[in-house]
Amino acid sequence: MDARGEDDDRAGGHEHHHNKQEQEEQQQEQEHQEQEQAGQGAYVPVLYASQTGTAQDTAGHVSRTLIRHHLSSAAIAMDAFHVGRLLELPVVIFVVATSGQGEAPDNMKKTWRFLLRKSLPPDSLQHLHFAVFGLGDSSYPKFNFVGKKLFKRLLSLGATPLTPIGLADDQHPLGVDGALMPWIETLLTAIRPLFPQPLSRPPIPGDKLLPPVANVIQLSADEHATLTYQQQQQQPFERPHNEAAPSRRTPARVPIKLNQRMTPEDHFQDVRHVVFDVSSANLPYAPGDVLYVMPENTSESVDAILDWFGVDGAMLVRVQVDDEAVATSLPALPDRLSFRDLLTHYLDIQAVPKRYFFEILASFAADEMQSEKLREFTAAEGQEARYDYVNRMKRTAIEILRDFLSAKGRVPVAYAADMFGFMQPRAFSICLQSAGLNTKTFLHAGEIHTAVAIVNYRTRMATPRRGVYTNWLKTLQPDTMFVFGNRNAAADFLYGDEWRALEHRGLLTLVLAFSRDQEHKVYVQHKMREHAGAIYSAIARGAYILLAGSSGNMPKQVREAFVDIIQQEGGKTAKEAEAMVKDMERTGRYTCETWD
Ligand SMILES: Cc1cc2nc3c(=O)[nH]c(=O)nc-3n(C[C@H](O)[C@H](O)[C@H](O)COP(=O)(O)O)c2cc1C
């Protein structure tokens, strides 16, 4: 009886709950409809076309401005946006750069081809209101060519412009911001009649931070337990073996075959001949193509940022992006990765930071004066001050963080990706010997040759400015390191001339340990530790280790050195480092050939 009574009660409770839920849903639906009618929460995407990231950053700013005015918005790469939605949405904003000689950036090419179709009726976009902000440089003959062409094409398809086209010019003393600030004001005025309800409300103030778009979330132990073995082992930029050709989102790791300085050592400029081995990468290319390379940040800058956040680099994170189209606009990330790997391979921590960096920093600075100064940099009136402080001197994020120490340890890692943005790949012309070359037969099949000038220059800042990519590249060696140890160089350097010749040709990094050539004994494991950074970086990139020599203590000591190096350089625990080496042994990436 009792039990049934309870059941009945529960059933009654359910019924009651059900009614209440229905009422709430109805109410929500009604509110939603009212909001829709007034434009509240209406979706206004900001589509960008960007070759080197400036238009992407600008689109982020425009989209955040719309969100602050109670619209729903996201910055999306044009080709990541389903073009069919242009036929449904009432308002779309475009932010497009011009690249090449008046060419469209790669991430709008697909959409642009669609919009240029002759078969599109002239009234296809009759329902659409749009605005275009172009980014360009008036020192090019085809100034803002792509923005202007897009504007005209949208007009010819029947769409209605909200504002005249905005034209940013790199030559403006304030860069893009020179044209952006007034253009946004015009846009907000023009958009108001379309969405009267949200735009008549006071905007979300600048000192209230919006939720992160690319949210860096620390993995809980439970979440970690649900990962498959493959997910746990996934390395940055790892690709399934049978994947299609590499792309901007999913680049391929390829070995470097040669990295040789072409200019004399005492010459002011270090220009290198760099050869990439792309034979395994399914990377078709033809003369005139450009090679895009993702750089790595230096371990010093990664350490500085880790220290600044006050977190352990081994912390496992995932990056959550709720909007699918936004996620497709960003580099494809592993399902989980260490915070150190995120900083090393993906986030633009060595760059001159953009405006949003200051907005985030301002929200967390403890010192009132510092926070005020940072806010000034983000306001329309403060653009000149920010330009003076940041861009003129090419101050890097790390230098700026040192100036605003009261925010140290206070910014949640959740904002790390939004704060620094994602690194952009660097483009290089491909140079090949042209004799006898046609598009079908290459003289250097499976290789891509580039000539790279290393970027180092001084501003009034104490430390010289260094190009992130070219200086990283300079440190890269062909992916073979040969560590050789014996008693003394004069008698025991077997095949020494040949090893030296390979080293001279840039095909090998040679590390030598002659135990008796000095007072104290120096063995291979000591020398390995001196090259810990390069060794770990090679392991992280999938290196194979082949160990050969006497079967005494050496194999054990060398193995210990590898575990230590992985632990120290990879920010891993001893257990994780040990597991990594075990896994390499299991999968044939660590093999030993030893003898008595
Ligand atoms: C290789 C290259 C070619 C460019 N060609 C043009 C051009 O033809 N016309 C123009 O107005 N701007 C040109 N620009 C300037 C860019 O449009 C401008 O720097 C813009 O801010 C870059 O935006 P993004 O970083 O989003 O690609 C060029 C810039 C580069 C680096």
Automatic annotation (TrEMBL):
Major subcellular site: cytoplasm
Subcellular location: Cytoplasm
Record region (Disordered): 1-38, 229-250
Record-annotated Flavodoxin-like domain positions: 44-188
Cellular component per GO, a single term: nucleus
Cofactor: FMN; FAD
PROSITE patterns recorded: FAD_FR, FLAVODOXIN_LIKE
Molecular function terms from GO: flavin adenine dinucleotide binding; FMN binding; oxidoreductase activity, acting on NAD(P)H
Keyword Manganese set for record: no
Residues of the FAD-binding FR-type domain: 249-496
Coiled-coil features, chain-numbered ranges: none
InterPro entries xrefs: CysJ-like_FAD-binding, FAD-bd_FR_type, Flavdoxin-like, Flavodoxin/NO_synth, Flavoprotein-like_sf, FNR_nucleotide-bd, NADPH_Cyt_P450_Rdtase_alpha, Riboflavin_synthase-like_b-brl
UniProt keywords, alphabetically: Cytoplasm, FAD, Flavoprotein, FMN, NADP, Oxidoreductase
Protein's recorded name: NADPH dependent diflavin oxidoreductase 1
Organism: Salpingoeca rosetta (strain ATCC 50818 / BSB-021)
Lineage: Eukaryota, Choanoflagellata, Craspedida, Salpingoecidae, Salpingoeca
